[in-house]
């Protein structure tokens, strides 16, 4: 497993996704057991691979204790071994993902989001801009289970069309793939929830920021990164203005 960091991110995300499909096919006593097995096995595999292939790099993973050594490292892999555990546990659903990103000296340098149930991985090595959008209302990717109130306000204010789906990675990639126009989140996330999706979205030419328009920063002492905007660039000003108005209200 050699090549550039872009290639490695894509390969790791894809193969972790293949492992998760195998885990998912097993018999489990309940959904909680399936979730725990998926999270744990994917994390351990990714940690082992990164330890072997990039032994000098630090790792920040949702499923591991935070190692403060990452704060003085030049290169940190930020991974979510299974994004969308609820959807993963529901066998009919495809809207879950694997996130693998590399932060290097202050910036996201590479990343990939695997959508294993679709057999698809989008990575910074070769991602196209979204296709031309159809005529019609602004399409917002929203959480199917926990949509934040600000999204409902945006839908009403902009006469937008909500499109419900699971994992954060799936929602961000829906913008990259042209199925939606924007993903707005304000309900609380961590760096591993958005690092890989943001890296891929940036490579596709999309706007990415905090909800107030400020930059997304990674590998900070506190990995809590609660809000996110990923959208087609032509909608960025409109969405940021609407969000600023909602905040004042």
UniProtKB/TrEMBL annotation:
This is 3'(2'),5-bisphosphonucleoside 3'(2')-phosphohydrolase. GO terms for biological process: 3'-phosphoadenosine 5'-phosphosulfate metabolic process; sulfate assimilation. CDD domains: CysQ (cd01638). SUPFAM superfamilies: Carbohydrate phosphatase. Pfam families: Inositol_P. Keywords: Magnesium, Metal-binding. Its cofactor is Mg(2+). PANTHER family: 3'(2'),5'-BISPHOSPHATE NUCLEOTIDASE 1. InterPro entries: CysQ/Inositol_MonoPase (IPR050725), Inositol_monoP_metal-BS (IPR020583), Inositol_monophosphatase-like (IPR000760). Mg(2+) binds at residues 62, 80, 82-83, 193. It catalyses: adenosine 3',5'-bisphosphate + H2O = AMP + phosphate. Signal peptide: none annotated. GO terms for molecular function: 3'(2'),5'-bisphosphate nucleotidase activity; metal ion binding. The keyword Cell cycle does not apply.
């Amino acid at each position: 497993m050699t090549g550039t960091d872009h290639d490695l991110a894509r390969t790791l995300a894809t193969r972790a996704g293949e492992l998760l499909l195998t885990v998912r096919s097993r018999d489990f006593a309940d959904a909680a057991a399936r979730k725990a097995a998926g999270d744990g096995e994917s994390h351990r595999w990714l940690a082992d691979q990164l330890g072997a292939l990039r032994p000098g790099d630090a790792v920040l993973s949702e499923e591991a204790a935070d190692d403060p050594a990452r704060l003085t490292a030049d290169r940190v892999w930020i991974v979510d071994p299974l994004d969308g555990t609820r959807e993963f546990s529901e066998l009919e659903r495809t809207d879950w993902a694997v996130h693998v990103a590399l932060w290097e000296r202050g910036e996201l340098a590479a990343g990939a989001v695997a959508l294993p149930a679709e057999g698809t991985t989008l990575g910074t090595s070769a991602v196209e801009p979204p296709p031309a959008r159809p005529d019609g209302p602004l399409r917002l990717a929203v959480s199917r289970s926990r949509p934040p109130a600000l999204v409902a306000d945006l839908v009403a204010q902009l006469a937008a069309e909500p499109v419900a789906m699971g994992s954060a990675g799936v929602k961000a990639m829906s913008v990259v793939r042209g199925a939606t126009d924007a993903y707005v989140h304000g309900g609380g996330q961590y760096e591993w929830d958005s690092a890989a999706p943001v890296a891929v979205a940036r490579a596709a030419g999309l706007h990415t920021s905090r909800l107030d328009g400020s930059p997304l920063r990674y590998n900070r002492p506190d990995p809590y990164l609660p809000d996110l905007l990923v959208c087609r660039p032509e909608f960025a000003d409109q969405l940021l203005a609407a969000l600023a108005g909602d905040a004042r209200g």
